[in-house]
C-alpha cells in the first residue's frame, strides 16, 4: 500500500503527463474491451440452450460442396432413421414477412416455419403456454402460432390472457398456443413461428432444399458416432432416390461452431486490429516513461544513496505503471460503452448477440486483465532502465541523458511504432479499396430510377 500511495502522489505531481498517459491507454484499452465484448457474445458465450455442447447442425453436401439447406423429405428420413439423436428439429432457412390485421392498423411481422420438435430439441421452455404438438405438424391440422416475447409485449401489452386468442395473419386466423422468452432468438429475428406441416406445399419435396436440421445427441454419443450413422443413412437414401440423393450427404457440425463460421474471421480480425492500436499506445507510453525517467534520474539516485536497491526502485516504478494502467482501464471501460455503439456499424448485422452488447462480468474481467497486462507491458523495460543508476556515478550528474542502452531501447520502440503504424495504414488502405470496389460492382442491369420495397 505504501508503494501505491507514493505512486499516486508522484503521478498527481505531474498531472499533465499523467492525464496524457491515461488518455492514451483509455483509448487503446477501451477499444479492446468493446471488441472483446462483441467477440464474447459471438464466439465464446455458450448458446442459451440446455446442454448446448450436445446440439448439432446438419447441412447437405453435394460431391463435397456444402449446400446449407436440406429438403423436407430428407429431414423426415434422417429424423426417423437415425440412432444417435434423442430429438431432431428443423427450421426453414429463410424468414418471411406477413401482415397481421385486426388491430388498430395492419402490422408487418417476420415469420418462419419450424418443425414441431425444434424447440424441445433446443431445450428452452416457453415463457407461457406450450410448444407445437406432433399432430399440429400434419397438413390440415388447426392453424396455430407461437409468438415472440417482444411481439407479446408490443401487441398484447404482456397480458397473461393472450394464450388462446387468435390473430389474423395474411388473412388466416391463427390461435396463439405459446409465447417464447423475451431474449430468445435462433437464426432469424422473428415475431411469429408457424408449424412445419408434412405434405404441405412447403414440405412436400425431396428436391426443394430450404430447411436446416438441428439434432441433440443422445447421452454418450459423440459427433463422430453421429457422422458414421448419417453416412449409412445417406448411402441408403442415395440407393432409394438416385435422382435426388446421388452424391448427397449430410455434414454434421457442432451448432456453436457452425453458427460462428460465417463471421468468425471478421470478428477475430477486428480484435487483432484493435490489439495493434493498444500496442501502439503502449509504445507511446513507454517512450514517455523513458523521457520521464531521464528527468527523475536525480530522484532515483538519491533513493539509491539512501539504501534503496535496484529491485526496490523497479517495484516502485512498476507500481506507478500499474496504477496508471488501471486508471486508464477504468476510463477505457467507460469509453468501451460508447465504442460498443460504433461496433454495431462495423460488425455484420447477422452476427448474433450484437443487439445485446452491454457491460458484463466477462467484459469487466477482461478489462482488469488487459489493464494489468498493459501496465506490465509498457512499464517493465522503462522501469528497469530507469533503475540502472549508481550512487557514485549519478548523484552529481543531475539530469543526465539516458545511456547508450536506453537510447537503443528508445530507438527500438520508435522503429516498432512506425512498423505497426505502417501495417495499420496499409490495412486501412486495402479495406478502403475493397469497399470502393464493392461500391463500383455492376449488377448487370441499369439501376437508375429503380426502387425496392419490403
Features:
single chain; 454 residues; alpha+beta; 2 domains; six-stranded antiparallel sheet; 14 helices; 13 strands; 16% strand
**SSE series:** HHEEEHEEEHEEHEEEEHHEHHHHHHH
Helix fraction, binned, reads 40-55%
Identify low-pLDDT runs: 390-402
- Give the structural class: alpha+beta
Number of strands: 13
Shape: elongated
- Could you tell me the radius of gyration in angstroms? 31 Å
Overall mean pLDDT stands at: 82
Biggest sheet, in brief?
Answer: 6 strands, antiparallel
Describe the structure.
With 454 residues, this protein is α+β, with helices and mostly antiparallel strands. It folds into two domains: 2-46 and 262-436, no CATH class; 64-246, no CATH class. 52% of the residues lie in helices and 16% in strands. It is built from 14 helices and 13 strands. A hairpin with a 5-residue loop joins β5 (96-101) and β6 (107-114). α3 crosses α6 (223-240). It starts with a helix and ends in a 15-residue tail after the last helix.
